[in-house]
Structure to design on (115 residues):
């Protein structure tokens, strides 16, 4: 059985969990109240940092789930995403609209990656 490693664990959740050669990241959010662009940029930086700590990088992302507070923000978020994502190794992706933890969050991104 593979070991399980948890990073930045608290009583409710871990920011990252590594099981075997798979990395699971918790939903990442940006600074509450910032624009969709600023939140998405902060989230992607956080994802890069967490993946690096797990021995991975954005070229190894397998699956992405993106939640938007409003689908009206789809194009704005995609402008940041499209400039960031590895075009040679794009992951599978789903994007939907959902009420997030607080109305100040506009974007939440969840990642599964290979090590």
């Amino acid at each position: 059985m593979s070991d399980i490693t948890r990073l930045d664990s608290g009583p409710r959740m871990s920011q990252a969990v590594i099981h075997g050669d798979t990395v699971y990241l918790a939903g990442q959010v940006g600074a509450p109240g910032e624009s969709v662009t600023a939140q998405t940029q902060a989230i992607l930086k956080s994802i890069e940092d967490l993946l690096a700590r797990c021995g991975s990088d954005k070229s190894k992302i397998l699956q992405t789930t993106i939640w938007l507070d409003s689908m009206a923000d789809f194009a704005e978020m995609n402008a940041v995403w499209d400039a960031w994502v590895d075009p040679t190794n794009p992951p599978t992706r789903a994007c939907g609209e959902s009420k997030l933890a607080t109305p100040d969050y506009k974007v939440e991104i969840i990642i599964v990656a290979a090590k």
